[in-house]
């Protein structure tokens, strides 16, 4: 069974062919990072136009690199939620046209759930039930995963996603976009002191499974640019707040390492709390762009060892947005009898 996957939810145009739901025959990703870098974030209209230009060449290349013809496909899977609607529509329209003209099923896939499925690509089956953690630019969510397509949400961020916080911290330090890999690289430079700053670990004292990353982001802003002076009180001298020390390379390294410690600590503690509260689970599965983070991968392995369960995290090339995860999860849904039709809609939010 060969399934073509198409992904266009944000700023990567991707297509892939997956065999039997697991073996990745091809995975092509055209990133748009260069188009959005000067704006410090993804500009939706620019993203949609770039998808429009790239989607057919990317599909053609995925089919060619898989060594197959379009006529060999059993189905077309497409990420149809969540994402930027204008971007989703481009991939969705291409997928509908292909499925209709080839006479094969169309299957809509939830992009966030597909991030967890990425851990099953080119790998052994994931032992279920699993505790799932998706950490991406748009989502930070814990799931009880009974099977690849049967998930329930246990908790998630109440403000920024972890990846979004990484990107904003990189912007505050003037590092570039996307910021996650740049902050990760700084944080792991020799001499970086992860205890230099005592940044807040969001919601860690609360007995729930939610995350908050806006506090640590603001704390980084103050560490880099200084605290704003409080408004002067009538009849009192204005309070003079000392400026932040110069942002030397050493200070940047320390900010990055301390920020990374705060984010990873929150992710690990809440994952452990979810494991205790909602288990038993047979594995810990982590996916999404931030699962490429060097410290998070190490810390999650330490947690899995402590829990005595296998850690399943996607190979690096399937952590960030890709279409192999879409084709893979689409194959599972196809085998379960799922079929969508040409009324399949682009939806900005995840299913759960
Ligand atoms: O999953 P993804 O490609 O897109 C969404 O579905 O959002 O995730 C992108 C996010 C970006 O915020 C990026 O900065 C972050 O993943 N990211 C990382 C690393 N690599 C990518 N964050 C931390 N450390 C990394 N090594
Ligand atoms: Zn994603």
Could you walk me through the main structural features you see in this protein, from its secondary elements to its overall organization?
This protein is α/β, with parallel strands linked by helices. The protein is 39% helix and 18% strand. The chain contains 10 helices and 10 strands. The strands form 2 sheets. The chain has a 5-stranded mixed beta sheet, with helices on both faces. Strand 6 (130-135) and strand 7 form a beta hairpin. The longest helix is centred in the last third of the chain and has 30 residues, at 249-278. The protein is globular, with a radius of gyration of 21 Å. The mean pLDDT is 96. Zinc ion (ZN) binds next to helix 4. Zinc ion binds next to helix 4.
Strand percentage:
15-25%
Neighbour order of strands in the largest sheet: 3-2-1-4-5
Shape: globular
Query: What is the helix/strand order?
Result: EEEHHEHEHEEEHHHHEHEH
Helix amount? 25-40%
Roughly how many Å apart are the termini?
28 Å
- Multimeric state: single chain
Task: Specify the biggest β-sheet.
Answer: 5 strands, mixed
Task: Write down how many β-strands occur, each being a DSSP E stretch of 2 or more residues.
Answer: 10
Give a summary of the structure in a few sentences.
With 352 residues, the protein is an alpha/beta fold. The chain is built from 10 helices and 10 strands. Residues 10, 136-138, 163, 166-167, 178-181, 184, 288-290, 292-293, 320-321 line the site of 5'-O-[(R)-(carboxyoxy)(hydroxy)phosphoryl]adenosine.
């Amino acid at each position: 069974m060969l399934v073509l996957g198409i992904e266009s939810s944000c700023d990567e145009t991707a297509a892939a062919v997956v065999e039997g739901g697991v073996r990745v025959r091809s995975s092509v990703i055209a990133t748009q990072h260069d188009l959005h870098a000067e704006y410090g974030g993804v500009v939706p209209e620019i993203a949609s136009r770039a998808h429009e230009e790239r989607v057919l060449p990317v599909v053609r290349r995925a089919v060619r690199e898989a060594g197959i013809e379009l006529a060999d496909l059993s189905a077309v899977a497409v990420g149809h939620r969540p994402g930027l609607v204008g971007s989703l529509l481009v991939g969705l329209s291409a997928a509908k046209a292909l499925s209709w003209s080839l006479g094969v099923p169309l299957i809509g896939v939830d992009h966030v759930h597909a991030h967890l499925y990425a851990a099953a690509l080119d790998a052994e089956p994931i032992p279920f039930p699993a505790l799932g953690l998706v950490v991406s630019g748009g989502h930070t969510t814990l799931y009880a995963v009974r099977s690849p397509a049967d998930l329930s949400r246990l908790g998630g961020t109440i403000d920024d996603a972890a990846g979004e916080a990484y990107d904003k911290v990189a912007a505050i330090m003037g590092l570039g976009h996307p910021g996650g890999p740049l902050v990760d690289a700084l944080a792991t430079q020799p001499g970086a002191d992860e205890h230099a700053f005592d940044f807040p670990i969001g919601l860690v004292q609360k007995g729930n499974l939610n995350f908050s990353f806006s506090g640590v982001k603001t704390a980084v802003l103050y560490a880099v640019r200084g605290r704003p002076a409080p408004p002067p009180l009538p009849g009192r001298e204005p309070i003079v707040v000392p400026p932040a020390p110069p942002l030397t390379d050493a200070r940047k390294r320390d900010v990055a390492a301390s920020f990374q410690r705060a984010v990873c600590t929150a992710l690990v503690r809440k994952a452990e709390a979810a494991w205790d509260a909602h288990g038993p689970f047979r594995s810990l599965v982590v996916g999404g762009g931030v699962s490429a983070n060097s410290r998070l991968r190490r810390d999650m392995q330490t947690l899995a060892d402590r829990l005595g369960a296998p850690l399943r995290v996607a190979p690096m090339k399937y952590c960030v947005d890709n279409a192999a995860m879409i084709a893979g999860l689409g194959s599972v849904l196809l085998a379960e009898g799922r079929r969508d039709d040409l009324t399949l809609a682009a939806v900005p939010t995840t299913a759960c």
